[in-house]
Design a protein that fits this description.
The complex is a heterodimer.
Chain A lengths: L6 H10 L4 H19 L2 E4 L1 H16 L11 E5 L26 H8 L3 E6 L33 H8 L5 E6 L5 H7 L2 E4 L19 E6 L2 H11 L29 E5 L9 H16 L3 E5 L4 H19 L18 H12 L2 H14 L5 H21 L5 E5 L14 H5 L6 H6 L3 E8 L5 E8 L4 H13 L13
Parallel strand pairs in A: 2-3, 2-4, 7-8, 7-9
Antiparallel strand pairs in A: 1-3, 4-6, 5-6, 5-10, 9-11, 10-11
Helix pairs in contact in A: 2-3, 5-6, 7-15, 9-11, 9-12
Chain B lengths: L15 H5 L5 E2 L2 E2 L8
The chains are: A alpha/beta, B little secondary structure.
């Protein structure tokens, strides 16, 4: 089956003429039709457009002039990216029926590389959540156990890769929304450095934290996806004009002599015993491959979550002010005046978690409270950044668990605070603007995936990827697939 | 800290009709909203 293959394996078949992009697209669309009613990863499937683009790729391979490693490869994108002519909901009722007039830069880059986009993937509303249970449409299921969540907010993107419903996907990570679902679904998820990838056409949640990145079946695929989307974009002034290295070329350099830091603050009470055992075994594997393991301290880790839940809501309360029922999206009729129209529209269009964060953020930014909450949180953020700076004077990468536990049952975490704790190990990386990656590091006895997090220096995704690649090559976790019968 | 500046070069915008196409209510080339001014 072509749907089993990685991007690089599929590309090799295309180049040899053993398979065509149209065959791959048809197999993926058939598998989506058969299995997605169970997994519920896709909000929108764009089958016709996918087959048209696959036919164009067929012609390029036939004439011996493919565009590159993504040419003809079937991919999916989180429904947070604007797609020209294709409904973009952000998992929210307030954007139901919104059809963007332009493509996000990352989408345009994938299309420019010849990729075949299969559709748009489910997510927690406006990327706020850790399970996709906050999607206004439905909850995506974890392919390893359909009674469990896939993680979030990019849960559809992670589940689609795990269930072979796309060769790779794009998601976004504001506090862990790529790495946590990648860990829960057993795939490679990469959150690049803040500024590495353009956010033009990405629906904003928290602008000082949001970053775009890939989900992939293996580390090489993650490198190929990052290669396609990374780099400066004149349309996003926060994207950095820093050269993009050849990520695939540096992948095989190994970890011999690499200094790997282990932060004591990430092995705390509340960390699941099976997760801890898997992560400690992974550290031993890296040591066996020649890495130098050192203890590091990130003393302000425990304050990261509290700072994040002031900064992210504050920024979201400002960003989400644009959903006013005037320019696009939902408008609830029957209002007496403009203010009443805003209230009715936002009251009906937003879900409970989005309202909670807009209210928290508005409060934290209000006159008289700004310094006590938002100002204080920004100071904590600086302390978290300095922790990493100090640690990276001694080590090249930091290795830790991605999440404190494995995928939980749907409906299990009703209290918002217990849901927020999912991101305790991923949030500090966003606060510091650093790159972070989750790579499969084994399974629990019950057969649920465990993720190993690798954190790097700013704009040093190459070292993250080569660390993950060395670990992946020394283990066999990737051979296991979820048992999904059609 | 330094400012990063670029040349101020005119570039095409999206067509007005496309930008208005998603509006829940409009009048000609304007967005239409409920009454703002109180009696």
């Amino acid at each position: 089956m072509l749907t089993d293959l990685t991007i690089h394996e599929l590309g090799a078949r295309f180049r040899l003429g053993d398979a065509t992009p149209t065959q791959a697209a048809r197999e993926y669309l058939a598998r989506i039709a058969a299995l997605d009613p169970k997994v519920k990863a896709y909000l929108t499937v764009t089958g016709e457009a996918a087959l048209a683009r696959a036919a164009e790729a067929d012609a390029r391979f036939k004439s011996g002039a493919p565009l590159g490693p993504l040419d003809g490869v079937p991919l999916g994108v989180k429904d947070v990216f604007c797609t020209r002519g294709v409904r973009t909901t952000c998992g929210s009722k307030i954007l139901e029926g919104f059809v963007p007039p332009y493509d996000a830069t990352v989408v345009a880059r994938l299309l420019g590389a010849g990729a075949v986009i299969l559709g748009k993937l489910n997510m927690d509303e406006f990327a706020m959540g850790s399970s996709t249970e906050n999607s206004a449409y439905f909850t995506t299921r974890n392919p390893w156990d359909l009674s469990r969540v896939p993680g979030g907010s990019s849960g559809g993107s992670a589940a689609a890769v795990a269930a072979d419903l796309a060769a790779a996907t794009l998601g976004t990570d504001t506090g862990g929304s790529i790495r946590q679902p990648a860990a829960f679904c057993g795939n490679v998820g990469l959150k690049p450095t803040y500024g590495r990838v353009s956010r033009f056409g990405l629906v904003a949640f928290a602008s000082s934290l949001d970053q775009v990145g890939p989900f992939a079946k293996d580390v090489l695929d993650a490198a190929l996806m990052l290669q396609a989307i990374a780099g400066h974009d004149p349309k996003d002034s926060t994207s950095a004009a820093i050269p993009v290295p050849d990520y695939a070329a540096e992948l095989e350099r190994g970890v011999k002599g690499l200094r790997v830091g282990i932060p004591a603050e990430y092995f705390i009470e509340g960390l699941d015993a099976e997760v801890e055992a898997a992560v400690r075994a992974a550290i031993e594997t890296l040591k066996g491959l020649g890495a130098k393991i050192e203890s590091v301290s990130l003393p302000h880790t425990e304050y990261g979550l509290a700072a994040y839940y002031l900064i992210a809501p504050a920024e979201c309360s400002s960003n989400l002010a644009r959903y006013d029922g005037v320019k696009y999206g939902l408008r609830v009729p029957g209002a007496r005046d403009l203010i009443d129209m805003y209230s009715r529209t936002r009251g009906a269009g937003f879900g409970a978690e989005v309202k909670r964060r807009v209210m928290l953020g508005t409060y934290a930014l209000s006159a008289g409270y700004y310094d006590a909450y938002y100002g204080k949180a920004q100071k904590v953020r600086t302390l978290v950044q300095r922790d990493f700076q100090t640690a990276f004077e001694r080590v090249d990468v930091i290795v830790a668990p991605t999440t404190p536990s494995v995928a939980f049952k749907m409906g299990e975490k009703e209290d918002p605070l217990s849901m927020y704790l999912n991101d305790v190990f991923t949030i500090p990386v966003n606060l510091a603007g650093l790159p972070g990656l989750s790579v499969p590091a084994g399974f629990t006895k019950a057969g649920l995936p465990i993720g190993l997090q690798v954190i790097g220096k700013a704009f040093d995704e190459a070292t993250l990827l080569r660390t993950a690649k060395a670990y992946e090559a020394a283990t066999t976790w990737r051979d296991r697939k979820p048992g999904l019968a059609a | 800290m330094t400012n990063v500046m670029r040349e101020d070069e005119p570039a095409p915008s999206l067509p007005q009709a496309e930008m208005l196409a998603n509006a829940p209510d409009r009048s000609g080339e304007f967005f239409r909203v409920p009454k703002i001014i109180e009696e």
